[in-house]
Specification:
Number of helices: 10
Oligomer: single chain
Radius of gyration: 21 Å
Pfam families: GSP_synth
Protein name: Glutathionylspermidine synthase family protein
InterPro entries: GSPS_pre-ATP-grasp-like_dom, PreATP-grasp_dom_sf
Number of strands: 21
Keywords: ATP-binding, Ligase, Magnesium, Metal-binding, Nucleotide-binding
Strand content: 15-25%
Shape: globular
Structural class: alpha+beta
Domain Glutathionylspermidine synthase pre-ATP-grasp-like: 12-390
Number of domains: 2
Helix content: 25-40%
């Protein structure tokens, strides 16, 4: 694994505009950054990222089966009791999932030294940056190859787009797909538009609406759109823990809507899975020791660890503690439900920038990666996205 500086395409902004990628800058700072790329060997991709991703996914699915059958674990994850049946029934039906992203610390292979990737967290419910990963970095590779920015035989670990289309074909079953989220947010709106496009390529009729525009029909019961059409199949870029506390949360159990991601994903989007995974698979090379903060075993991590809220997004309220002092921390609104502590897995340092690997799954199958880097070891909403290549 290398970070290789390279010239950027002169026309990349125009290319981004043509693709509908209009959030390549955030608050005046670069979000997309192609002044360098990360290069991997095929062994690093297949053995270092793809294989562990599939293994971690299987451990996570096994964990869901345990949690839905154990009230103590549901309570431990701070999932409201009123929604336990919703999660349990969703899991028993094996409600379909579309996609997810594991965030990994991966230093790359050095000669014969194969340091394993470590799971930092699982973005299982509402992962964004899917358009950049699936489309725009692939466009970069094609043009960078043509313009000899990268070697001519370069490739990319990226079948995300094709996998999404195939998955929508199996999920659609002739129904209209509604895609809901916070449409005023540029990144969310672009994510919804991209996923709607992949669904349309799979033959589905699609409608995008703001999550606040989802209505309820009392007669017959059920969620409806602004035209009073039934919402039979809905992709939601909106977290389950927020839905549980919103006004329409009480209706979730009585509606016929099939949600993507399904209710059981509320378990995997909870950072409380990190100590539970460790408890189930202690010593696994791709897991980090982790404990709930009130667990006496947490003291075993010593005075250096990462402190994470059970519910958190984009690095908010995460703090990196070294020798008892928070050396890097992100502010935010989370933490009321409690915290976990996770052993430190130092990110590789490429001259003062720290990359996190996003390993994508579609239909539970590993199929691509994205890279976010920052000047701090905590990846946040403004961290830059860099492309990658297999050399």
């Amino acid at each position: 694994m290398q970070r290789i500086p390279c010239p950027e395409r002169d026309d990349w902004r125009e290319t981004a505009a043509q693709c509908g990628f209009d959030f390549y800058e955030l608050d005046g700072e670069r979000y997309w950054d192609e002044r360098a790329y990360y290069a991997f060997s095929i062994a690093e991709i297949e053995l270092g990222i793809e294989e562990p991703t599939g293994e971690i996914e299987q451990m996570c699915l096994e964990l869901v089966g345990r949690v839905v059958a154990d009230e103590a674990l549901l309570r431990r994850l701070k999932i409201p009791q009123a929604f336990w049946p919703l999660l349990s029934e969703s899991w028993k039906r094996r409600d379909d999932s579309l996609y997810g992203r594991l965030d990994l610390s991966f230093p790359g292979f050095r000669g014969g030294d194969r340091v394993p990737a470590k799971l930092l967290e699982y973005n299982a419910d509402t992962p964004t940056s899917i358009f950049e990963a699936a489309v725009f970095q692939w466009t970069w590779l094609e043009q960078a190859t043509e313009r000899r920015i990268v070697p001519g035989r370069a490739d990319q670990y990226n079948s995300i787009h094709e996998r999404l289309i195939a998955r929508w074909r199996s999920l659609g079953k002739g129904r209209r797909l509604h895609l809901a989220g916070m449409t005023a947010e540029a990144e969310d709106a672009a994510t919804l538009a991209y996923l709607a496009d992949t669904a349309a390529q799979a033959g589905l009729l699609t409608s995008i609406l703001d999550v606040t525009d989802i209505g309820w029909r009392d007669k017959g019961g059920g969620f409806v759109d602004l035209d009073d059409n039934d919402i039979a199949l809905a992709f939601k870029l909106y977290p389950w823990e927020w839905m549980f506390h919103d006004a329409f949360g009480a209706r979730l159990g009585s509606a016929a809507t099939q949600w993507v991601e399904p209710p059981w994903k509320a378990i995997l989007s909870n950072k409380g899975i990190l100590p539970l995974l460790w408890q189930m698979n202690e010593g696994h090379p791709n897991l980090l020791p982790a404990y709930f903060e009130d667990d006496p075993k947490a003291a075993g991590l010593g005075s250096s660890f990462v402190r994470k809220p059970i519910y958190s997004r984009e690095g908010a309220n995460v703090s990196l503690v070294s020798d008892g002092v928070a050396v890097s921390a992100q502010e935010g609104p989370y933490g009321a439900e409690g915290f976990i502590r996770q052993a430190l897995a130092p990110l590789p340092d490429f001259g003062g920038v720290f990359p996190v690997i996003g390993s994508w799954l579609v239909d539970h199958q590993p199929c691509g990666l994205s890279i976010r880097e920052d000047a701090t070891p905590i990846t946040g909403n403004r961290s830059r996205f860099l492309p990658h290549a297999i050399l």
